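Exam review. A common question shows you a sequence with its structure tokens and asks you to describe the fold in words. Practice with the pair below. Do the first one on your own.
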Amino acid sequence: MPENRILLSKRRARLNAEAAKGGKAHMRSLTGRLRSLHGRILTSYSRGHVPQTRLLGRILS
């Protein structure tokens, strides 16, 4: 899947740019993403259905 490889290289380039800036921006975006993910898991559990692991893997990766 070439489009997937393009997405991966774009993400890697963005992470490298943020790491060159100092790495703190990357950590902030990572914790923000995890916090929103945690909230999404809680709301979906309170609604009574288990979140899709495929979606979680795509967000976390």
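Now try the second one, then compare your answer with the model answer below.
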Amino acid sequence: AEVGLAERAGAWPKTLSGGEAQRASLARALVREPDLLLLDEPFGALDALTRIKAQQLVAELWQRRGCAVLLVTHDVDEALLLADRVLVMRDGRIAYDTSVALDRPREVGSPGFTDLRSRLLTELGVEAAGRAPEPGVEGAGHAQARPESTEIPGAYPARPHPHPRHGDPS
């Protein structure tokens, strides 16, 4: 019940969806009440919506249970949304270590989040991540705009909908 599978308790493993199978794996791990939960790319094979729900479930379980979680992921946003500390491994060694000192719940579009993402992507060698220039300094920078604040002449009007990973569009 804790992972939302009570109604599927009698189902055969082959009949479970990808998200249900991940939740079943999580339930098997939690039944022993571990002090440390190891999650190796647990959301990688899930579709976007199921991935978001699974991330929320892991965050809720972590807060409720209080156990430590070691999450291995290649998704920078996922790491910053879920982790309190991010380590980047290179050639089997820790190449970069940073704490994620952002309040929860975290929003991908918040200034602190985008700055931290930019620093992490730069550390990973993604030069296009760029940071906004310092005030009064001219040159190339980084900008982002919410969809509702942009307009394309001749295009059909569109209204954004709230998205758990990206925050309220208003």
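Model answer, second protein: The chain has a mean pLDDT of 79. Strands lie at 36-40, 68-72, 85-90, 93-99. Full marks require stating both points clearly.
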